[in-house]
Prior knowledge:
The complex is a heterodimer.
Chain A: E1 9-13, E2 18-23, E3 32-38, E4 45-50, E5 53-56, E6 61-64, E7 70-75, E8 84-91, E9 107-112
Parallel strand pairs in A: 1-9
Antiparallel strand pairs in A: 2-7, 3-4, 3-8, 5-6, 6-7, 8-9
Chain B: E1 5-7, E2 10-13, E3 19-24, E4 31-37, E5 44-50, E6 53-57, E7 64-68, E8 74-78, E9 87-94, E10 104-105, E11 109-113
Parallel strand pairs in B: 2-11
Antiparallel strand pairs in B: 1-3, 3-8, 4-5, 4-9, 5-6, 7-8, 9-10, 9-11
Amino acid sequence: LAKTTQPISMDSYEGQEVNITCSHNNIATNDYITWYQQFPSQGPRFIIQGYKTKVTNEVASLFIPADRKSSTLSLPRVSLSDTAVYYCLVGDTHVDSNYQLIWGAGTKLIIKP
Amino acid sequence: DAGVTQSPTHLIKTRGQQVTLRCSPKSGHDTVSWYQQALGQGPQFIFQYYEEEERQRGNFPDRFSGHQFPNYSSELNVNALLLGDSALYLCASSALTSGTGEQYFGPGTRLTVT
């Protein structure tokens, strides 16, 4: 089960692009990289998932280099409402796989006005 | 379409008591996972249910047990409560055959053991 390392906290300002990098040196061939966002007193919310190169959706982009030992979540033009904890998870999430995603403490992102 | 719902929202119990938490998955989902989240920590996987059977289990003692019903809803039972069981308990549902593993979380049940 691959473990991840990400910064404990980050600060940024409204309107800026924020990049949160996650390290997963022992990622396995079948592992996907998934990011969740969590606001206080709420359950986590799925943001994005990827396997390699770049994935983009309406809220974020995920950049994964060729060796897949790290990944970067990019949040364009953040607002105060993006203040939350962001979790990077690595695991094989597909059918018939014995997956059990390990959640670290996440990155606490604080957006300032 | 209602998302994942959990009940109760908050609960206060005494050491040694037993507690049952409930979860209704998002419509169309057949898999329910339970997590324990201590303050300032990430969620810790307790177990996962699919087709009314425990499919996977995390590193939690047998005091933690669960059940899944034919309508896919689920219960988490904790016996002989300890002070350390105080946490936010999260339920997440997913569609096992979706191929993405994307989980939808409920708002959680805040359990306080005194």
